[in-house]
Amino acid sequence: MSEKKRIPYQDIIISLSLIALAVVVLIAAKDIPPPFFDPIGSAAFPKYTAYLIIFLALVIGIRSILLSQLLARESKRGFKLEPLLAAYTVGIPALYVLSMNLGWASFRSATTLFIFALAALLSRFDKRVLIVSAIIATVFGFGGQYLLTEVFYMDLPQ
Q1: Alpha helices of 71-106 — where are they, by DSSP H?
Q2: Which one, of 107, 101, 94, lies nearest residue 137 by Cα?
Q3: Quick one: which of 33, 56, 53, 57 has its CA closest to 43?
Q4: Among 13, 35, 53, 82, which one is most buried in terms of CB atoms within 10 A?
Q5: What predicted TM-score, i.e. pTM, was given to this entire model?
Q6: pLDDT higher for 72 or 121?
Q7: Which residues contact 12 (CB under 8 A, 6 or more apart)?
Q8: Residues 123 and 92 in one domain
Q9: Residue ranges of the alpha helices (H) in the chain?
């Protein structure tokens, strides 16, 4: 019997797109002027974030290729297609960034709502997950505000 191998084009395209985006960030980070008082440098955060995105994109791409080879024998789909959930997963982060960019919400409140809403949708409003995600969202929203403004001295949307 010939085994039909599925090539995960979507994962590969997403991985390559993320790598291209990170390369653009790395190129743009070269234009950031050097700081006066920051020992690490103004461009350190975007550079390290871009390196992390490149690493994770490579992991996702390689993992999807290896996983597709391992699961080539399985002909049935092991998941249920949910395009609405996929749309929420893309739309909520876009709304999160847009709300801060347009000044509708501060970083603290937008982050808290973003984490809670996304966790609630992905968990299908499971009460146990809602409780934990409310705590995590609050910690990340308020803790992230404190960390980024008081420790790293970054200006965030207010």
Answers
A1: 83-101
A2: 107
A3: 33
A4: 53
A5: 0.54
A6: 121
A7: 61, 64, 65
A8: yes
A9: 9-29, 44-70, 83-101, 107-122, 127-146
